[in-house]
């Protein structure tokens, strides 16, 4: 395992799915640090986070980089004494992140904008378009659901021309992933209700299977035409998602309908459906997957998920991603945990004489960077 880690030490990873950092002026509290390493949204859960393996491991790794005691108090005290931009740059450099494909749809007024992030963070960056956010913004000026679909597709074409690397959907949150087509009348009626809320100045949140699934089918066609990979959140996430409806198996229409031939789909996170995701990668050419968020949030189970994924999925289909956001500490921890899990899984294959050491080194290099460079058509 150590030999593999050393062989990959100079490889700058392509983090094909991550989110922007908070602006450096924002103060960081103990609760902020704790909530970084949980998918819970309820602040009351913060008191339980120190009782998790992932947080204890994260504190140890962060403290080692900051050269302080592995306690929450020491970490917060040490990072407060550092210049924020230099601190972020140092941790990102240590994470060996060479390229970020950023989904800015998961952002707030406290996070860097696209332009600010590119200026503040000295790492190559490309945009991933958040489909549902884009669609909500395109409600103005359209009179029907068909016009809306056309407007969204037009915006996706423009984004591709401007350099966007891919498209991300959170249909799992908004309607579940058991994709099906709905009657035109039902979709049109739901659209008019959404449009009326927007016209009244009410908050607009796209949801419901007729609109969400209809939009996804249309976006998939445009992604196919533009050669843009379509990232799909599946598996675990925030508690406002119904995990029972988040299995990637429900995406089958995108893989079997000849209409979508040539579409590249990337399954994000996947846990606890990582075995289902690996199966889809093994039988459908256009399907890829990652274990972002699973590593490190699933703790020791994350390493097992890596071994199980590589037991079925071609490693030419597995990508590296952190799903990091808000603070550079998460980039650091996710990168280290991911590389270690990858090394442990490939080392087992070497020990079982499935692969030679050189083959394992090459395969891991592809997972860390090569596969993403090929899939997203990145230079370098």
Strand order of the largest sheet: 1-2-3-4-5-6-7-9
Q: Which blocks of ≥5 consecutive residues have pLDDT under 50?
A: none
Q: Please tell me the total number of domains.
A: 1
Mean pLDDT value: 97
Cα-atom radius of gyration: 21 Å
Order of helices and strands: HEHHHHEHEHHEHHHEHEHEEHHEHH
The proportion of residues in beta strands is 5-15%
Number of helices: 17
CATH superfamily grouping: Metal-dependent hydrolases
Shape call: globular
Query: What percent of residues adopt helix (DSSP H or I)?
Result: 40-55%
Comma- or semicolon-separated keywords:
globular, 380 residues, TIM Barrel, 17 helices, 8-stranded parallel sheet, alpha/beta
What does this structure look like?
The structure is a single chain. With 380 residues, this protein is an alpha/beta fold. It has helices at 2-7, 30-35, 53-66, 72-80, 84-95, 114-120, 131-137, 145-161, 171-174, 184-199, 209-226, 252-256, 274-283, 294-297, 300-312, 328-351, 357-375; strands at 13-18, 97-103, 124-130, 166-169, 230-234, 265-269, 287-290, 292-293, 318-319. The chain has a single domain, classed as Metal-dependent hydrolases (TIM Barrel, Alpha-Beta Barrel), CATH 3.20.20. It is built from 17 helices and nine strands. Helix 15 (300-312) packs across helix 16 (328-351) and helix 16 packs across helix 17. The two termini are 27 Å apart. The model has no long low-confidence stretch (mean pLDDT 97).
